[in-house]
Amino acid sequence: MRVIGGEAQGKRLYSGPEKVTRSITARVKKSLFDILVNEIPGCHFLDLFAGAGGVGIEALSRGADACVFVERNSRAIATIRRNLQTTGLGARASVVRGDVFHYISQQLATAFDIIYVAPPQYKGLWAETLLALDGSSLLRNNGIAIAQIFPKEYHPLELGSLEMYDQRRYGSTLLCFYTSAAPQQATSDQVEAEARID
Fold it and tell me: Which of 27, 58, 122, 133 is most buried when burial is the number of CB atoms within 10 A of its CB?
């Protein structure tokens, strides 16, 4: 596992403990950051269920101003810190050992431009996390929340402030993209529809 792009490109990353962390494949990670290429520079990134920290570290390498890693497993936390040291990106990172849902429930002053959610599979945690984020102020207006899940886990969610606007499948990985406000094209279509009704 390596950093794919940016200032730490090519740096080797250590894997987290098996059965605790979910590593993202190089193919999926490259596709993800190709999609987010214009969103990453200068952003504040939140990596939930961070595992070994590969996604958040990739964001830092590609120009994110800051990244917070939230993970409760102590061995995974040690791996994140080791990877930050190896890549030299620790100055812009914060590592939080704790429960993701407790972190979301706190009334934090910080809001994030991009939130990445990659929990353990088949436990419904991806949906529970998005529902928790839906009622929080952690995601900035027009921010992006991304859930990494196994395709068979997916089911539509009843959300208030979040709306899914894209899905990408890469083999056994499905990325679901949500925004805190409807995409501009959807808004324009809605305006046109309302105009036709009038």
Answer: 58
Residue 74 is encoded by which pair of tokens?
């102590």
Tell me the C-alpha distance between 198 and 189, whole Å: 14
Residue 15: Cβ-neighbour burial (10 angstroms; 0-12, 13-18, 19+): middle
| pTM for the whole structure | 0.89
Q: Which helix (H) or strand (E) holds 153?
A: none
Tell me the two tokens of residue 67: 């990244």
pLDDT in tens, the chain (198 residues): 899 999 999 999 999 876 555 679 999 999 999 999 999 999 999 999 999 999 999 999 999 999 999 999 999 999 999 999 999 999 999 999 999 999 999 978 889 999 999 999 889 999 999 999 998 999 999 999 999 999 999 999 999 999 999 999 999 999 999 998 644 443 344 334 333 443
